[in-house]
Amino acid sequence: MSNGILSRNIRKMNHCGTSCSTIKCWKWDITPVILMHNKPSLRYAVLILNRPISQEEAFMKNFWEKATLRITVDGGALRWDQFLTRLPEEISNKMKIPDLITGDFDSITEETLQKYKKKGCKVVHTPDQDYTDFTKALKELNNHCQEHTIEVDNVIAIGQASGRLDQILGNIQTLYLAEKQHLLHPETKLYLMSGDSLSWLLEPGNHIISIPEETRKHNRAWCSLVPIGETCHSVTTSGLMWNLDNQSLKFGELVSTSNAFDGSDTVKIKCSHTILWSMKVPSLTGE
To answer: Where is the secretion signal located (predicted)?
Structure first.
């Protein structure tokens, strides 16, 4: 068990009682993720990517301050600095500085970089152009955790699903690389927060997702199940407005965008291949 997120294996038995396959099962509860700043026992890292910060001000202040690790990624340091200028000076002056600033530094201004260097921030230049700054930041986060014997259960990258489409797809690519290349500790969960939504990958197997009350009661709450890079040959769901019954998800055919919830406490999903799950969380932007 890790902060409300359960992962376990179930052996499926055939008629003779022997094990014929292993089904992975996960139980997801995002409430600890969105309220983790109120739970001091939870360990998480926050990454600020180079997109405008649209989350509710009080949420962002607490979310940043209570984090185990705080990282700004290239121009994300400038975005964070801009966020601080919106706060009263007596508050912004007391906010914790980033533990780490990473990137190829093609987006951050030299003035901002020097400002945070003088404050004592650790700066790591990552010039490799084969990976995005987001991907490289996860590698540096993992290095930093190993170097300083720090454990985090969740990593939340704050960006925006707007602007350049190639950068949005690059962020999704990083979610996949984190899984395929083991960029983080195996027990660490990675989420992408964009505006009032959270996205993460559902690996092949069974998933039970607890739906926060605020989402269930919101009349415009949405969710989506999107296959990325390959066909998901079989998806079965319950708890959605438009459920899937052993159906295939594939670009050029069916993709479940703009789905909704039926009011149930949980959504259950069984998928044959990895898919991207996204959902609205109204309180992130103060709705």
So the answer is: none
Contact 255, 247 (CB under 8 A): no
Distance CA 286, CA 267 (A): 24
Distance of CA 213 to the CA centre of its chain: 20
Q: How far apart are CA 282 and CA 214, in angstroms?
A: 7
- As a whole number, mean pLDDT of residues 253-274 equals 97
**Distance separating alpha carbons of residues 108 and 104, to the nearest angstrom:** 9
Q: What is the pTM of this model?
A: 0.88
pLDDT, position 8: 39
> In the prediction, which pLDDT does 4 show?
39
What are the structure tokens assigned to 123, written together? Answer: 């700066």
pLDDT of residue 40: 63
Share of the chain above pLDDT 70, in %: 90
* pLDDT confidence tier of residue 274, bands split at 50, 70 and 90: very high
Pairing between β-strand 223-227 and β-strand 275-280 as defined by DSSP bridges: antiparallel
* DSSP 3-state of 12: strand
Q: What are the two backbone dihedrals, phi and then psi, of residue 152, each rounded to the nearest 5 degrees?
A: -130, 140
φ and ψ at 233, to 5 degrees? Answer: -70, -25
The string of DSSP codes covering 85-108 is HTS-HHHHTTSPPPSEEEE-SSSS
Q: Give me the mean pLDDT over the 170-181 stretch.
A: 95
| Torsion angle of C-alpha atoms 119, 122, 123, 129, degrees rounded to 10 | -150
Q: Residue 89 corresponds to which tokens in the numbers above?
A: 């000076």
| Of 218, 220, 167, residue with least CA distance to 52 | 167
Return the number of other C-beta atoms located less than 10 Å from residue 215's C-beta. Answer: 19
Q: Which residues pair with 173 in a beta bridge?
A: none
